[in-house]
Every structure is written in structure tokens, then in C-alpha cells.
Design brief:
Helix content is 82%, strand content 0%. The protein is mainly α. The chain contains 12 helices and no strands.
Length: 248
């Protein structure tokens, strides 16, 4: 199989799941769709917890010391959040979602427009901030197989059904984000080789897990955390690990 096959399969499952979800959503009452969204939020919280626990990995502690991992994740979120807010990433993602809604669905009322944007933003964040996105795409590019992305594709397909039942076609538009993010990471893996040692991957995975907590809080309608503004933390975390390792 060629590098990138995992992303191709992932995009197809998202589109298929979104189509099924839209068909189901038109036949489901609002209360049922809200329950589906709540269930997806709880599962996202579970996935986030299993990722965030990587902060306790032995490889990371050995490289930077036992007291540093938590500070590294904290520093990554703070520095990444500052950079993301200055770059207005959340606003740009929402604006892109609104532009897509206009191009793909035409002019619509404010409620329908907000529903499209929320579906696009939330689905894009969920599909592209998890550890499987990063690790799977890099491994696919390195020629180590696309098994992780195939697993992610199945999970994303079912998630797309649940999302689209609540948010509509905005979820299908998130396939473009999947292409850009996973495609870029696959190319990076293909060109650069294995650039992240185990400690760096652990810090990145833990940081990604906390970003997924933010996604879960949005889904559960607890707080609209601007998760897109925090995305630079994924790049900051490995840098802080390297810096802490030098000091250690």
C-alpha cells in the first residue's frame, strides 16, 4: 500500500458517516440528537483521559525528571494558547467554516449557519487533535503501515454519524481538514523520518489529550473552550521536552 492510504480511507469513512448521519438526523427529534451529542462528548472525554495519562510515561520521566512532565504540558498549553490567540486561530477556523457553509450549502439562516460551523469546527478538532492522527500519519509516511489510521477511520466514521445527526453537513466538510492535517503529517513523516523520540511523543500525546478534554466540554455544552487557539501547544510540547532534557 502507498503512503497516504490511511488518510484516504479516513476521509471516505468521514464522508460516508456524515451522509448516514444527515439521513438519520432528519428523522430524529432534537432531544434525541442532543442525547447523541452528549454521549459522544462523554466518549470523547474517555478518549481524552486515556491520552492525557501519557504524561506519566516512564520514557518521559526518565528523560526530563519526575517533576517536569506536568510542567511541560502546562507550559505547552500556556505558550501554545498565547500563540494561537494572537494568531486568532479559533476565529480563522470558524470563518473558514462559515465560508465553506456559504460555498457548499448556499445562504442560510443564522441558526443553520451556526449549526454548520459548529459541526465543522467540532468535528475537525476531534478528528485531527487525537494521538492517532499524529502517530498514525507519521507512521504511514515512514512506511510502517497505516493500521493506526485504519482504526481511526473506523472510529471517525461512527463519530461522524453521531455528529452529523446533530450538526448536519458541516461534519462532512471536516474531511477537508482531515486531508490537510493528516496529509501534511504523512508527508512530514515521509520526508523527515522518525523525528520524535518516545519522550517527545508522550508529551505530545498528553497535550493532545487535554485538547480533547476541551472538545468534550464543548460537546457537553459546559464551556466553549477555544480549542483551536490551543493547537500550537502540540508543536510546543516536544520543544519543551528537548529543553528540559538538556537541563536534566
Amino acid at each position: 500500500m502507498f503512503p497516504g492510504i490511511g488518510t484516504v480511507v479516513n476521509v471516505l469513512t468521514v464522508l460516508l458517516g456524515a451522509g448516514i448521519g444527515v439521513l438519520l438526523g432528519n428523522r430524529l427529534p432534537v432531544r434525541t440528537r442532543d442525547v447523541v451529542t452528549d454521549a459522544l462528548g462523554l466518549v470523547t472525554l474517555l478518549i481524552a483521559g486515556t491520552s492525557a495519562i501519557a504524561v506519566l510515561d516512564g520514557d518521559l520521566s526518565d528523560a526530563v525528571g519526575t517533576s517536569a512532565p506536568m510542567l511541560i504540558v502546562l507550559g505547552a498549553l500556556l505558550l501554545g494558547g498565547i500563540a494561537g490567540s494572537l494568531l486568532r486561530l479559533e476565529q480563522r477556523v470558524e470563518s473558514f467554516g462559515g465560508w465553506l457553509q456559504t460555498r457548499l450549502a448556499g445562504e442560510a439562516g443564522s441558526v443553520e449557519r451556526h449549526r454548520f460551523i459548529e459541526g465543522f469546527v467540532t468535528a475537525s478538532l476531534l478528528f485531527c487533535t487525537g494521538p492517532l492522527t499524529i502517530l498514525g500519519s507519521l507512521n504511514d509516511g515512514l512506511g510502517n503501515g497505516a493500521d493506526q489510521l485504519f482504526l481511526k477511520a473506523v472510529l471517525d466514521g461512527f463519530a461522524a454519524i453521531a455528529f452529523a445527526a446533530s450538526f448536519g453537513w458541516g461534519v462532512a466538510a471536516s474531511a477537508l481538514t482531515v486531508v490537510v492535517v493528516q496529509g501534511s503529517l504523512t508527508v512530514a513523516g515521509f520526508l523527515l523520518g522518525d523525528v520524535l523520540p518516545a519522550p517527545h511523543l508522550s508529551a505530545l500525546t498528553a497535550t493532545g489529550g487535554l485538547l480533547l478534554v476541551g472538545v468534550a466540554l464543548r460537546l457537553l455544552r459546559i464551556r466553549e473552550i477555544p480549542v483551536a487557539d490551543l493547537l500550537p501547544a502540540l508543536a510546543v510540547a516536544p520543544v519543551l521536552v528537548q529543553f528540559a532534557a538538556w537541563i536534566h
